[in-house]
From TrEMBL:
Name of the protein in question: Alpha-1,4 glucan phosphorylase
Pfam family name, one: Phosphorylase
Top EC class for this record: transferase
Catalyses which reaction(s): [(1->4)-alpha-D-glucosyl](n) + phosphate = [(1->4)-alpha-D-glucosyl](n-1) + alpha-D-glucose 1-phosphate
CDD domains to which the protein is assigned, alphabetical: GT35_Glycogen_Phosphorylase
Cofactors that this protein relies on: pyridoxal 5'-phosphate
Lineage: superkingdom: Bacteria
PROSITE patterns assigned to the protein according to its UniProt record, in alphabetical order: PHOSPHORYLASE (PS00102)
Organismal lineage: Bacteria, Bacillati, Actinomycetota, Actinomycetes, Micromonosporales
Record's function text: Phosphorylase is an important allosteric enzyme in carbohydrate metabolism. Enzymes from different sources differ in their regulatory mechanisms and in their natural substrates. However, all known phosphorylases share catalytic and structural properties. Allosteric enzyme that catalyzes the rate-limiting step in glycogen catabolism, the phosphorolytic cleavage of glycogen to produce glucose-1-phosphate, and plays a central role in maintaining cellular and organismal glucose homeostasis.
Length: 799
């Protein structure tokens, strides 16, 4: 008996697990073994596993309540959690019990497991980072809550039609989501529009935010935290019964539909501009519901507002939740009656902001007119914050009007807009970039003026990834090998222990086992020839990431193969994975061209067994977990100075892929750690790239002077790949915003070094092991430790 909560402990023997499964099938699913479908079995299994975590959650909650700690609240518009079943089995210690119990009841465990659908509530790196950080927070026993939006439709499902990307809605929770605890009785009211009168803001429209939560277990500890996701619900009053009775069915539900649209769909936007009012509504919806919840939680044990910053640190994951700053001001001043300065001091001590970009176009701004219409009181508050900010700028830099204009929260030209990044920097005590280089560039460029005025506010926290998800779950074979090599599995909670693998790089028996695991992972991916070098580029499609550079290399390899098949040497499979934002035409053209090149190469017998290009559609966390273990070469080839960090680079290095990359984002730190001899470096660095872009860059001069480059582009222009890609080649020749042609020769030469290295398999394996051994730094546990030390200052509470 667990006396603390009066809970009956759930059994850990096979018989007890089977009993629980059976009773859940009957009592909660309401069916029987005889009539149960695979879906019934899946949902029942999920409940049985979830119960075990819920018991731990209850103990965690009790301990957290008792200690009244400082909480880390993570506000993020996106979470890319990945499949839940494999993770929750592992973290609840039921990985072996579950299949046995399913079999005993007559179900096929593989069929059941295949029904687990990943909630695609994010676009890319930013959303996945949020998930890794929550995993580490729980593993490190830090009291933390993640707040987000429970989108009905997650990131679109990608398919290819004639090689072109087609987007379909992802109704991920169509069958219900067994991992989720809905709390329809726990709604928060959110206002929009209206006016500000003497009595304060009177919203013109109200909707409800309905929470549900997902458990976030720690690994190797009792702690279970949670993510609270908000869903927009129409209020009772929004259904128009009289219209319905009059047969006006659409009009009757119109208001309700509009309300619920707020959490309908994740914005399919990865740092390109969307600028729609619905997105702004989403942002305010998230912020308003979450702050009310945070305040409610504060009040469990505390009464004095001055204590608030000691009990809550709120991390803004990029600018999407920045309205939390004026919203907390509004709550404190308008609803709690604090004076402005008191409230501002609390706000400034509570929030911190993580920036994830270097693309100027990715810094969110909202038209003043739109914001003022949707949130009139917030606009007033933003103006008042701006008065304070500009007052400080003027007194520090008298007469420097330009600086005032640059730092203002309001952009004046060509249209008045609110600059969310400036607001985020102004309303927080800490601003961090996500890799050393990124943080340096932020203070040197994007936030230069702010860093001059408030140098202490800026810091770096290099990203990391969960070793549980991206090594242990994704790559069980390699994980066992690592555990046997190190003689312990403690590396799963302390990834620096991987350093102990370095001496094993010199052990030929260990190298042979390492190679066996790579080959096994390739075979599991279904890539025919496990002897071919698997060259992997998996990430969102964006011109700055330069999938087009990889493509030019592929065409060059193809040309070499055609001109002299005997000399080719190293068989390669190039694998792409990733989605392009639906409105991002240039990125979609690159996808189309990749598929066209892949088809041409596949149809040409000369390439057989030598060169293959594969592009499985719908890259997501589930697919990433299959591809990453199999990869030999990791493509991290962004134009230097544009990729904030990258996290795929870390996942791949940890699984023994060797990076070919520019000195961009976290590549710099990966190379520092794994050593220049275990990393294929090429291209301009950030300084060189900025200088070349600043001068009159002539992409055509590279084309004119490099016959292989010319041949590759000419082939595309001449329609050699089914007539596809003319626009891609033309834009490279005319503008080439991201210096693809400038870096082409250096890249192709580095790829020749890759091929030479691959020919010496012993050498390659040594490099591969050393990549994993020296990448322990890139655990999200270390990232969380850095956040704790540099920003959050929260301490563990153990149940
Ligand atoms: C990404 C950055 O592009 C990537 O470099 C970084 O590793 C990642 O965040 C995590 O910090 N940014 C985004 O995903 N941005 C959006 C808007 O999705």
């Amino acid at each position: 008996m667990d006396l603390r909560n009066g809970l009956r402990p759930l059994g850990s023997t096979p018989a007890e697990f089977e009993q629980d499964l059976l009773s859940n099938l009957y009592y909660r699913r309401g069916t029987t073994v005889e009539s149960a479908s695979a879906q019934d079995a899946y949902e029942t299994l999920a409940l049985t596993v979830r119960d075990r975590l819920a018991a731990r959650r209850a103990r965690t909650a009790a301990a957290q309540y008792d200690s009244n700690p400082r909480w880390v609240y993570y506000l993020s518009a996106e979470y890319l959690l990945g499949p839940q079943l494999d993770q929750n089995l592992l973290y609840s210690g039921t990985t072996d019990l579950a299949p046995a119990a399913l079999k005993a009841l007559g179900f096929d465990p593989a069929e059941v497991a295949a029904l687990d659908v990943e909630p695609g509530l994010g676009n890319g790196g930013l959303g996945r980072l949020a998930a890794c950080l929550l995993d580490s927070l729980a593993t490190m026993d830090i009291p933390a809550v993640g707040y987000g939006i429970r989108y009905d439709l997650g990131i679109f499902k990608q398919s290819f039609e004639n090689g072109e990307q087609v987007e379909k809605p992802d109704d991920w929770a169509f069958q219900g989501d067994p991992w989720e605890f809905p709390a329809p009785d726990d709604r928060n009211r959110v206002g929009f529009y209206g006016h500000v009168g003497p009595e304060g803001w009177v919203p013109g429209e109200v909707i409800d935010g309905e929470p549900s939560h997902l458990l976030v277990p720690g690994y190797g500890t009792e702690t279970v935290n949670f993510i609270r996701l908000w869903r927009a619900r129409a209020t009772e009053a929004s259904f128009d019964l009289s219209r319905f009775s009059a047969g006006q069915y659409a009009e009757a539900v119109d208001q309700a539909v509009r309300a619920e649209n707020i959490s309908k769909v994740l914005y399919p936007d990865d740092s390109t501009e969307s600028g729609r009012e619905l997105r702004l509504k989403q942002q305010y919806f998230l912020v308003s519901c979450s702050l009310r919840d945070i305040i409610r939680r504060f009040r469990f044990r505390n009464h004095d507002w001055a204590e608030f910053p000691a009990k809550a640190v709120i991390q803004l994951n990029d600018t999407h939740p920045t309205l939390a700053i004026p919203e907390l001001m509004r709550l404190l001043v308008d609803e709690e009656g604090l004076d402005w300065d008191q409230a501002w001091s609390i706000v400034r001590q509570t929030f911190a902001y993580t920036c994830h970009t270097l693309l100027p176009e990715a810094l969110e701004t909202w038209p003043v007119a739109m914001l003022g219409r949707l949130l009139p009181r917030h606009l007033e508050i933003i103006y008042r914050i701006n008065d304070g900010l500009l007052g400080e700028v003027r007194s520090r830099f008298p007469g420097d009007l330009d600086r005032v204009r640059r730092m203002s929260l309001i952009q004046e030209e060509p249209e008045r807009r609110v600059r969310m990044a400036n607001l985020a920097v102004t309303g927080t005590f800490a601003v961090n970039g996500v890799a050393e280089l990124h943080s340096q560039l932020l203070t040197a460029t994007t936030f230069h003026d702010f860093a001059t005025m408030w140098p202490d506010r800026f810091r770096n926290v290099t990203n990391g990834v969960s070793p549980r998800r991206f090594v242990r779950l994704a790559n069980p074979g390699l994980s066992s090998l690592i555990t046997s090599g190190l003689g312990t599995d403690a590396w799963l909670r302390d990834l620096s222990l991987l350093a102990g693998l370095a001496p094993l790089a010199g052990d030929s028996a260990f190298r042979a086992q390492w190679r066996t695991e790579k080959r096994r992972a390739k075979a599991a991916l279904g890539l025919g020839d496990p002897g071919a070098l698997l060259d992997v580029m998996i990430k969102r499609f964006h011109e700055y990431k330069r999938q087009q550079l990889k493509l030019l290399h592929i065409i060059t390899l193809y040309h070499r193969l055609k001109s002299d098949p005997g000399r080719f040497g190293v068989p390669r499979t190039v694998l792409f994975g990733g989605k392009a934002a639906p409105a991002y035409t240039a990125a979609k053209s690159i996808i189309h061209l990749i598929n066209a090149v892949a088809a041409t190469i596949a149809a040409d017998p000369v390439t057989s067994g030598q060169l293959r290009v594969v592009f499985p559609p719908n890259y997501n966390v589930t697919l990433a977990e299959k591809i990453i273990p199999a990869a030999d070469l990791s493509e991290q080839i962004s134009m230097a100075g544009k990729e904030a960090s990258g996290t795929g680079n870390m996942k791949l290095a940890l699984n023994g892929a060797i990076t070919i990359g520019t000195l961009d984002g976290a590549n710099v730190e990966i190379r520092d750690r794994v050593g220049g001899e275990n990393f294929f470096l090429f291209g301009l660095d950030a300084t060189g790239a900025a200088a070349l872009r600043g001068s009159s860059y002539q992409p055509r001069s590279y084309y004119d002077s490099d016959p292989e480059l010319k041949a590759a582009l000419d082939a595309v222009l001449a329609g050699a790949f089914g007539g596809v890609g003319h626009d891609v080649a033309q834009s490279l020749l005319d503008r080439d915003e991201y210096l693809t042609l400038a870096d082409y020769r250096s890249y192709v030469d580095a790829q020749d070094e890759v091929s030479a290295a691959w020919q010496d398999q012993e050498r390659w394996t040594r490099m591969s092991i050393l990549n994993a051994a020296n990448s322990g730094f890139f655990s999200s546990d270390r990232t969380v430790a850095d956040y704790l030390d540099r920003i959050w200052r929260a301490t563990p509470v153990r149940p």
